[in-house]
Amino acid sequence: MTDIVWHQHAIDQAARAGQKGQNPVLLWFTGLSGAGKSTLAGALEHALFAAGFHTYLLDGDNVRHGLCQDLGFSAEDRDENLRRVGEVAKLMVDAGLVVLSAFISPTREERDGIRAKFPHGQFIEVHVSTPIQVCEARDPKGLYLKARSGEIKDFTGISAPYEAPLAAELTIDTSKGDLATQVQALLDYLTAIQVIGTKTEIVDKLTALA
Ligand SMILES: Nc1ncnc2c1ncn2[C@@H]1O[C@H](COP(=O)(O)OS(=O)(=O)O)[C@@H](OP(=O)(O)O)[C@H]1O
Ligand SMILES: Nc1ncnc2c1ncn2[C@@H]1O[C@H](COP(=O)(O)OP(=O)(O)O)[C@@H](O)[C@H]1O
């Protein structure tokens, strides 16, 4: 029979991250509906996952149908939506994961509140700064049309505010350049801050994928 050794101390973030061979971070994508948050965060997650990173992407699809299904789009409900997402992301980072999130997150106060939960350097704000005219022209779900007609109330950028970040770590306008170049800019940033780069084989794989 295997001896079970009982340790009094909790397993900490460094131990969990070390077991996975990575530095955990939260990449927080913010921007208007249709700006390209989900597309960019999804493409980056695929690149990281394929290279062997342990990742998780939080977005409206997996959060607003479960954890936050009781919430709508009033300012109070968005605050609560993002507070819960921030707490979940904190637990996931604590578990040693590279976490990505894609929410409009319209106010600086909400985003800065989440940033404050993390040590310096572990919260990376990515402003997806695609102009509203481009987002409205894309209108993939027809929501801007409904917002303009008044069918949807409190729509970000039309009838509810969006406060652009003042000092995001990265700013990407998806109306310029292509997706591969934008993902490469994110990978370059992660390399520069040493989230990527502890294992040369991972760097080689990412270079091959780019
Ligand atoms: N009133 C209103 N305003 C803005 N967006 C609305 C609204 N109603 C529904 N939707 C759809 O919900 C998505 C935004 O949800 P989020 O959880 O990202 O928003 S928030 O951070 O809590 O503001 C957003 O998804 P994305 O288009 O992917 O950003 C919309 O499709
Ligand atoms: N990097 C990109 N380059 C060009 N078009 C993009 C890019 N990302 C997204 N799009 C277009 O914008 C639309 C909205 O993208 P999406 O990722 O769903 O935005 P968000 O999650 O911010 O609402 C997509 O359907 C696609 O047509």
TrEMBL record:
One of its GO terms (molecular function) is ATP binding. The keyword Ribonucleoprotein does not apply. It catalyses: adenosine 5'-phosphosulfate + ATP = 3'-phosphoadenylyl sulfate + ADP + H(+). ATP binds at residues 31-38. The active site is at residue 105. Residues 24-173 form the APS kinase domain. Belongs to the APS kinase family. This is Adenylyl-sulfate kinase.
